[in-house]
Amino acid sequence: VGNPELQRRRRLMWLMDQYLKNDVLSIQKSIVDHVEYTIARSRFKFDDFEAYKATANSVRDRLIESWNDNQQFHRDMDSKRVYYLSMEFLMGRSLLNSIFNLGIKEQYAQALNELGYNLEVVVEQERDAALGNGGLGRLAACFLDSLATMNYSAWGYGIRYQYGLFRQTLQDGFQHEQPDYWLNVGNPWEIERVHVTYPISFYGKVEEKWVEGTKTFTWTPDEMVEAVAYDNPIPGYNTGNTINLRLWAAKPSGEFDLQSFNTGDYVNAILSKQRAETISNVLYPDDRTYQGKELRLKQQYFFVSASLQDIMRRFKDHHSTFDNFADKVAVQLNDTHPTIGVPELMRLLVDVEGLQWAKAWDITTKVFSITIHSVVAETLEKWSVELLQTLLPRHLQIIFKINAMFLEEVKNKIGNDYDHLARLSIIEEGEKKSVKMGSLALVASHTVNGVSKLHSELLKERVFKDFYDIFPHKFQNKTNGVTQRRWLAFCNPGLRDMLTKWLGTEAWITNLDLLTGLHQYASDPILQKEWNLVRRHNKARLATYIEAISGVKVSIDAMFDVQVKRIHQYKRQLLNVLSIIHRADCIKNMSPAEKTKVVPRVCIIGGKAAPGYEIAKKIIKLVTTVGEKINNDKDIGNLLKVVFVPDYNVSLAELIIPASDLSQHISTAGNEASGTSNMKFTMNGCLLLATLSGSNIEIQKEIGDENIFVFGAKPEEVDRLRAERRQFQPPQEFHRIIGMIRNGKFGDTEYFQELCQTVDGGNDFYLLGNDFSSYLEAQAAVDEAYVDRERWTRMSIMNTAGSGNFSIDRTTREYAENIWGIKPCQPTS
Ligand code: AZC
Fold first, then answer.
1. pLDDT surpassing 50 at residue 756
2. Count of domains for the chain
3. Which cofactors does the annotated protein need, by name (predicted)?
4. Is residue 121 domain-shared with residue 86, that is, in the same domain?
């Protein structure tokens, strides 16, 4: 009483209590409010899209509320936080996920219903946020969901691309790329922070000066842009913990080059500044091939520098020295892409904050850790020294110094073995010198991890062998996981209800190990019946979609056999197509009596090819051509259908995965770092046809050998088989099928030649010829299992029951405990 500050606070508390309630009426009011005042439409007349926008805005209000509370809480606690730096976050849609996580889905459904709208229709209006290519970007998105759900203090940092991953259309069976200008329709999930900006510099010169006995470096850049923050609140499931994904957009810098405006060429001066925005414009669609393009390096430096400046600013709000920076800050590098952050943190600490090199290096090496997502060293980025010298001259100096000190240190361990030292060096010598970003990251990181057991072993034995020999303590494994919220509970509501009913609890949504409780019912005829009903319902939804997009009618009694992922030679979509051709050919040669024994299949293939990846594009064309031929063959009829689903993305995955009977994860043994869709399929009761690659091996272990179809070479055989491939004679069928393609059975004779050559004896790097027989045998085993409905259903249940280990929550906990050193932390009230 009488204290004005207290009165003000009370007033604010009371005001907040008046709205944002989550009963149906309050939600309706808030939706209608947004229709009128945000969308500026009449509440008597708004369409489904406007309904989506208003609904999204009303959900966003609720997210902001918990976001604010949460940020305040962690500020007060000053808890250690992990910052997840990633060039890609493949988020997909947000509406359904948010209302599920906030626990207000039913209210929203009813609220919309009473207003005359259908939630299911409304959620379909949302465009996917496709700020990623595939596995690496989707993993980042799963982490955010899990970090929020498990009450960790965490932020994601990335780039707010205006063009997400291209949209794929098919014209005459060929892939075409359409720009994904997703922000055109507005993005209600982000909050623009016009005042959270940082200057980002490029080019220019570095001056060295002696100041009071120490050498100082002043970088005078030639170009400067501004990074502007856009915050995307990420709600946890069933918790008030809403974390932040901060994405940076490039804007022309406000202050820089005021001088140049004195040139008389005012209009051109503005236009050239405007080009700054291009930095954050477009996501690179080549997943895992690097062309060393300047713009890509600019993007990397742009988002990493902004993020580190932001992290340091936040730290400085609470601390006057950097002594305990590493006790408060953990930075995870998602692959080598953000590695320029290492010299950038050094620059900020030494040049800007005035720390001694040794002190700064000590901090840096305690802050960073890195996850590697690929199996071969060739995919790790390298940047030419020349480009770095031009674009980031100060960083190049810092990299050289880091390298010199590092090589000095290892010399003490390994002596003057120059070959060995050259392999360890961060700088690759040669005609064109370059900086090996993987090596730089490894030298600076306290921990490096692979994404499955086998992959982490391969990192130690091959990719980073030289580093492993000197830093064995840095190496860990963290097998990937996926969020069971989006990938089971929300995308498969039928299964969700059934699991909850049979397990007697919903707790599996945050503790997936509870699914083992299903084991005991795997043969229970009642569960089996319900199980198949749910699966048929999901298949019917997918069948409707397939007919709508392709005109192909598919029967839900047929086995839905699915391979959806980026198109890559190592993933061997071609092997799948070859066996489809083989199957069609066998069916055509059967007597009517034999045909009655065939298990009808619908083969569904989907995925994008990088625009410049010709072989991958030819594979797509082959799938569509083969499909066209088979689908119209009267001799084959409903026994085999082949569908290429265009524009595979997160939302389509949510439709396809719950409807799949069989899914294929058939990369050459050891060639897939982990794979994560395999986990999603398993969780949803889909059986896997798999090679001994990445996490397939761990899945097999969890669900049991009898519940998965494994084939092909063993990882330890691959090197030898590759070496001997010139002498290898693939089976007769293999030659025959390749011959059919070569000889024009599917038209486009010329076009497919190069594709056929990739599997010619000496060329067959991915060993399609070697694995073909064993693949066909596995396919036969699949057919045999499918006709035994009781057995198949039991296998399906055992897949779901055994998938607990592949929850991202397990992965997150392992990172938190063994790498980041952070603890869950939540307000008690
Ligand atoms: C992928 C791996 O290919 C995949 O096996 C893994 O599951 C996934 O990362 C998540 O760890 N890699 C990528 O998507 N991209 C790159 C550049 O490796």
1. yes
2. 3
3. pyridoxal 5'-phosphate
4. no
Determine, yes or no, domain membership for 598.
Answer: yes
Can you read off the two tokens belonging to residue 505?
């609890």
460 is catalytic: no
Q: How far is the CA of 474 from the centre of ligand 1 (A)?
A: 21
How far out from the chain centre does Cα 245 lie?
A: 14
Same domain, 381 and 395: yes
Domain containing 530 — which CATH number? Answer: 3.40.50.2000
Q: Judge if 522 and 453 occupy the same domain.
A: no
**Residues 611 and 526 grouped into a single domain:** yes
Q: What is the pLDDT of residues 16-44, one digit of tens each?
A: 766 689 999 999 999 999 999 999 999 99
Give me 628's structure tokens: 């066209």
Cβ atoms of 607 and 646 closer than 8 Å: no
How confident is residue 463, by pLDDT bands cut at 50, 70 and 90? very high
- Does the beta carbon of 337 lie inside 6 Å of ligand 1? no
Judge whether residue 573 has pLDDT over 50: yes
**Same domain (yes/no): 792, 742:** yes
Ligand 1 atom nearest to CA at 451: 11
472/496 same-domain check: no
444 lines ligand 1 (CB under 6 A): no
Give catalytic status of residue 462 as yes or no. no
**Does residue 334's CB lie within 6 angstroms of at least one atom of ligand 1?**
no
Distance 274 CA to ligand 1 centre (A): 34
pLDDT of residue 261: 63
Q: Do the domain assignments include residue 177?
A: no
d(CA 406, CA 444): 10
Centroid of ligand 1 to alpha carbon of 101 (angstroms):
26
Q: Which of 81, 373, 395, 810 is catalytic?
A: 373
**To the nearest whole percent, how much of the chain has pLDDT over 70?**
98
Alpha helices in 474-613 (DSSP H): 484, 493-503, 525-550, 573-588, 592-595
Cβ–ligand 1 distance for 673 under 6 Å, the answer: yes
Give per-residue pLDDT as tens, 670-707: 999 999 999 999 999 999 999 999 999 999 999 999 99
CA of 480 to the centre of ligand 1 (A): 10
Please give the residue range of the domain that contains residue 710.
484-806
571 catalytic? Reply is yes
Active site residue 676: yes
Instruction: Give the distance (Å) from ligand 1 centre to CA of residue 458.
Output: 15
Residue 288 beta carbon below 6 angstroms from any ligand 1 atom? yes
138 CA closest ligand 1 atom index:
10
Name residue 370's beta-bridge partners.
Answer: 333, 448
**Of 539, 508, 695, which Cα lies nearest the Cα of 604?**
539
Both 218 and 267 in one domain: the answer is yes
**Using a 6 Å cutoff on CB, does residue 132 contact ligand 1?**
no
Query: 737 and 777 share a domain?
Result: yes
CA–centroid distance, 50 to ligand 1, in Å, is 37
Ligand 1 pocket test, candidate residues 90, 336, 373, most atoms within 8 A of CB? 373
Compute and round to an integer the Cα radius of gyration of the chain. Answer: 28
Which residue, among 458, 160, 119, has the nearest Cα to 280 in the 3D structure? 160
- Check if 550 has its Cβ closer than 6 Å to any atom of ligand 1: no
Q: What is the ipTM of this complex?
A: 0.98
Q: Is residue 18 part of a domain?
A: yes
Options 680, 725, 794, 810, the catalytic residue:
680
Q: Is residue 706 part of a domain?
A: yes
Q: How does pLDDT run across 415-446, given as a tens digit for each residue? A: 999 999 999 999 999 999 999 999 999 999 99
When pLDDT is averaged across residues 203-212 and rounded to a whole number, the result is: 94
Residue-by-residue DSSP string for 660-728: -SEEEE--STT-SS--SHHHHHHHTT-EEEE-S-TTHHHHHHHH-GGGSEE-S--GGGHHHHHHTTTT-
- 566 as an active site residue: the answer is yes
